């Protein structure tokens, strides 16, 4: 009898499978790329409440603190821009994949769909938004920012060829610049940071850790913003320092050198990420624990003059400063309301891109 | 289940001895081995130290897998946990450098250097021969740390043979082995089907807090992932005369490794795809016997190991958009598959064994091997290949009773590295019950098509790496020196062997300056805005392992056997440190200085229809060292097994029940995920195997009697 039940169950399963596969066949006649794009398109069409839309573009993260920061930012934008729909986009494929999968999906909780910018933009086009504002959530106008520009270019040039060409020639596309886009931004950000952390700077060093353009390719020479920010901050207090994970000559090793040159050889060191969210870099490269410090041998620098296998926290602690979990301020810049407001201002000031449109069919 | 076994076992143990064993147990030293020299020798007189694991040992152990057998019965082996299954080491060196063969044919295909050991059905093993050290003179590429030759069971001597073996254990561990063998005239046929499944287990739901944003206690990551695999094999042998035989083999194999789909934390336990393998192979072989010793064989084979992602959620991968433009966002949907790599190998080998004057035995062979890799998103134009042609010669001098000298050399011509020669020489002195063996041999491993042809971008964090193959790679090499002594008397044998293996030109991936990106890679440069770090395969690393292996076996009487082995190991390697872009000296990851195992077995036949076997097995390891993420803890694990043979083989139908408790002391490591383990055992488990065998029309010939393990009722 049991066997019969098993067989019966198998037959039912096989039968239901064949029904499913009928439906699937229909779906699979589309290529995956188009199928995915259409899912994004229809989601946008369903959710569309306004004629104007803001897309916040970040590299992405899979950390809970980052999800929360993006959620809060999205809410703040909705409040600040009542006539706009607001979406968050990731440019990291792995972060997109993982953020959307997992148990919260099965439980019916909100699915974290941080589609890549190209899919969002195409969807906005398909939904015929009249105004599209793309806001870069990058800190400096560096490597990642160029990608944001390229996505807009591809969209405006109708790269997939299936957006209404007439619509494209009329839509308003605006670009909101990164946090430290212009020199005056540096002054604003420095003033804002000092207004929040001046009490801590009175107690000891406050060191900010940015990402920076990587070793060999300083896109738009944007790394200079970190030096400028440090300069501006030091006008308020000599205890402010700004270093990076990746920009040559401005690693934590150089931050320490500058501190020592300034005669600061002991005391408290507060650490703060100079990144939009506190994700992998903030938790590991800044506040992580490791055992790279060898008693008697110290740290070993690589060819570029950085100690790669230790965190900022351990590095300053082992170099004689009071730096520990209590002096680590684990907050992304989007979590600092006053700084987030600067991004909001950038969105308000977003420039309309003129002459972006190049028809696919110039002869028409 | 627990209660039942605990209740039965003391009763079985305390049963009075009712009758003496009537079958004389075979001395293992009389077993015939072939792997060390390619020619048959008894274990006692094989010129190169060879370890054998017999069918009888495997049955008494009641092992679930090939990994179980090796880790329990041979001290040199260890296994690390990997996402795609266990990763093997032999005397400190990884699967990359170990040649695994089934019936003398190399196991094809790897993932990151690891063979899929699920291809090996533990219930279909007749015996395992292990020859440690370099063996490339005879076997070519990969035989740098050792050669494992799995000899499968044959039932050629039966007119009809049917078997079903089903093993069930904790965590829904299921093993099925089925055989149908028959002989009609000059044809014999053997069909086997095997199935392996486990639900996997989770020793801890804690993640390493140093690697996560907050302390996670409810991770869904498993210690060992669930998997299912199945294999169908067919062998047909045609023997038109005593001298000539012709064999045709084929197999189909499938495996899926399931990863949890219910992860909670996208940063550590969320996965969007499973792994799938689809393997197949076919071979033909023929042997012509010129006389008692001389023979010529020819074998040709083709094998495929295709590796797929099976998506369990929407996943963006590198690919090409509808305009044919490279994108990091090509989507795959739940239920879809995507080929990652298809490794195909075609081989042909002609070999002869000839008696020469003055007590010399010559083995000579020619081999051609063609490797083909189809990896659509990994290799330029999706495809890469490699070929090797080889000639080898080996001479065994047996002119003196007290001395055997064997020397051999292989000449190789390879597409990538050109000409290479790899020699070996060994000597065995016989002095009464003592055997002194010493040998020097070299091993090599050809650069794989992947190492030669890889060409793809991979974004990790904010950095994009351009992985580049290298067609100028040399072969990786090993230089192995060993000396050992064996003593055997009656049922007692003991051996001690010391060795040193020096590996050089080991291939690793090395960061290059951007200026060294070869021309013609523009399509991989993305939109030009991102910084790209090129990484290329290079002959960069080296390693040295040295150790001492000790082994003891004592058949106290016809019923009791005790034994054990111990392995001391020391390693040193220069590995590439990509953070500092230089070599650094380290011990090899996963190394334990001390490993050992002991066992005691007792078998007693109570009457014609029932035989009981009991076995107690222990294995232990000292701390396993790793560069990063903590060391593996030292451990010891004990296992109790029982076997029950019901019915005599000459009655046709034989039943066998095996039942036991693995990891009696319920030891398990609950080290958080992300850190290393000494062992991934799940703690105490129970298993029970039922085996039914039916054979009819048994025909025996003298060869079978010589080679048969007489104590085995099969």
What does this structure look like?
The complex is a heterodimer of chains A (364) and B (714). With 364 residues, chain A is an alpha/beta fold. Chain A folds into 2 domains: 32-179 and 344-352, 3-Layer(aba) Sandwich (Rossmann fold); 183-275 and 288-327, 3-Layer(aba) Sandwich (Rossmann fold), CATH 3.40.50. Helices cover 47% and strands 12% of the residues of chain A. Chain A contains 14 helices and 8 strands. Chain A has helices at residues 2-28, 32-47, 64-80, 93-100, 103-106, 117-126, 143-156, 165-170, 183-203, 224-236, 252-261, 280-286, 312-318, 337-348; strands spanning 52-58, 84-90, 131-136, 172-176, 205-210, 240-244, 269-273, 351-352. Chain A has a 5-stranded mixed sheet, sandwiched between helices. In chain A, helix 3 (64-80) links the parallel strand 1 (52-58) and strand 2. In chain A, helix 2 crosses helix 6, helix 6 runs parallel beside helix 7 and helix 9 packs across helix 10 (224-236). Chain A is elongated. Residues 11-23 of chain A have low confidence and may be disordered. Chain B has 714 residues and is mainly beta. Chain B has one domain (2-707): TonB-dependent receptor, beta-barrel domain (Maltoporin, Chain A, Beta Barrel), CATH 2.40.170.20. Chain B contains 6 helices and 39 strands. In chain B, the strands form 6 sheets. Chain B has a 22-stranded antiparallel beta barrel. In chain B, strand 12 and strand 13 (187-198) form a beta hairpin. In chain B, 42% of the residues are buried. At the A-B interface, helix 2, helix 4, helix 5, helix 7 and helix 12 of A face strand 18 and strand 19 of B.
Structural class of chain B: mainly beta
Q: Which sheet architecture does the biggest sheet of chain A show?
A: 5 strands, mixed
Shape of chain B from CA axes? Answer: globular
| Strand residue content of chain B | over 45%
Q: Overall 3D geometry of chain A?
A: elongated
Task: Report the C-alpha radius of gyration of chain A, rounded.
Answer: 25 Å
> In the CATH hierarchy, what is the class of chain B?
Mainly Beta
Tally of helical segments of chain B: 6
Question: In percent, how helical is the residue content of chain B?
Answer: under 10%
Give average pLDDT of chain B, whole number: 89
Q: Mean of the pLDDT scores of chain A?
A: 87
Strand order of the largest sheet of chain A: 2-1-3-4-8
Strand content of chain A: 5-15%
